[in-house]
Amino acid sequence: MDNLAGVSAFVQAAETLSFVEAGRLLGVSASAIGKSIARLEARLGVRLFHRNTRSMVLTAEGLLFLQRCQRILGEMAAAEQELSDSRSAPRGRLRVSLPLVGGLLNPVLAEFIARYPEIELEADFSDRRVEVIEEGFDAVIRVGDTEDSRLMSRQLGTFHLQLVASPGYLRRAGIPRQPAELRDHACLLYKFPSTGKVETWPVAGWDKLLNEDLGSRTVCNTVDTLIYLAEQGLGIACLPDFAVRQALERQRLQPVLGDHSRHSGSFKILWPSSKHLTPRLRAFIDFMSARLFPT
Predict the structure, then answer these.
(1) Is there a contact between 138 and 281 (Cβ–Cβ < 8 Å)?
(2) How many beta carbons lie within 10 A of that of residue 10, not counting itself?
(3) Mean pLDDT, the chain, as a whole number?
(4) Smallest Cα–Cα separation from 175: which of 242, 259, 243, 232?
(5) Tens digits of per-residue pLDDT, 81-105?
């Protein structure tokens, strides 16, 4: 413990470049700070400061030692905060960004709000790629990968894109047996709001079909509308399996070209790696991990 007191005295003195100010911050005399640092220098066998009657500066060894000591004290402060937080219920404001897949997320969010009434949840639904740190989000849920080394991540689950259409549409227009036959069908396409690009369907030759041969098409930027249009018999849509699971079970939609489509995607939750995991953030991460894609 005496060693730790010496480290604290050194850090305060190095950051303020004043024994008097360091003593004031630690509640001891300037003389006590000087003696503590002298003992530390003797133990280390190096000088940590260049001192004279008018100024003091860190030596090269002192600067290196300061950087290490600041990390150690920072870790100790974080550990103390985590232990303190663990004794309190999750509470406070939590700002999260979520993709526009309300059918998947809404029931889980409702459960989370009911489970943690003291958390003030601010949920921002958007399909644009938000800047997590710059925009001040505590966490985001995204589809796909991230290359931002500043973020921590945890995979929540996987999904598949599949082509679907209503039984009525397929009776009227026929069932396509090969991807090339999509040129003779009405296709309901999803456009990403953030980029304006049309989503790629997971079938062979899609780029050529989209650019040259695709038949009539309707383009929209919300999944819920595409599901509705498909259920109304207006064409074939390519949608994530979780979004159409209920419609498939109730036979309002049925799979199309299932043997010719291959796709796998993932949902991840991300948060700033430098961000202290408060009880409310930890609760959100753990809850989403457990409930969004239950096994």
Answers:
(1) yes
(2) 24
(3) 85
(4) 259
(5) 666 665 667 888 999 988 877 777 8
Q: Please, is 42 exposed, middle or buried when counting C-beta atoms within 10 Å of its C-beta (0-12, 13-18, 19+)?
A: exposed
Answer positive or negative: Cα dihedral of 146, 150, 151, 152.
positive
Percentage of the chain modeled with pLDDT above 90? 26
Its pTM surpasses 0.70: no
**Cβ(65)–Cβ(54) under 8 Å?**
no
Calpha distance 40→34 (Å, rounded): 10
Domains of the chain (ranges, CATH numbers): 2-86 (1.10.10.10), 92-157+266-291 (3.40.190.10), 161-263 (3.40.190.10)
Q: Tokens for 227?
A: 């599901």
- Is there a contact between 82 and 88 (Cβ–Cβ < 8 Å)? no
Q: Which two tokens stand for residue 95?
A: 């700002």
Measured distance CA(159)–CA(144) in Å, rounded: 10
pLDDT digits (tens, 9 = 90+) for 199-226: 888 888 888 888 877 767 888 888 888 9
Question: What is the spatial distance between Cα 23 and Cα 44, in angstroms, rounded to a whole number?
Answer: 22
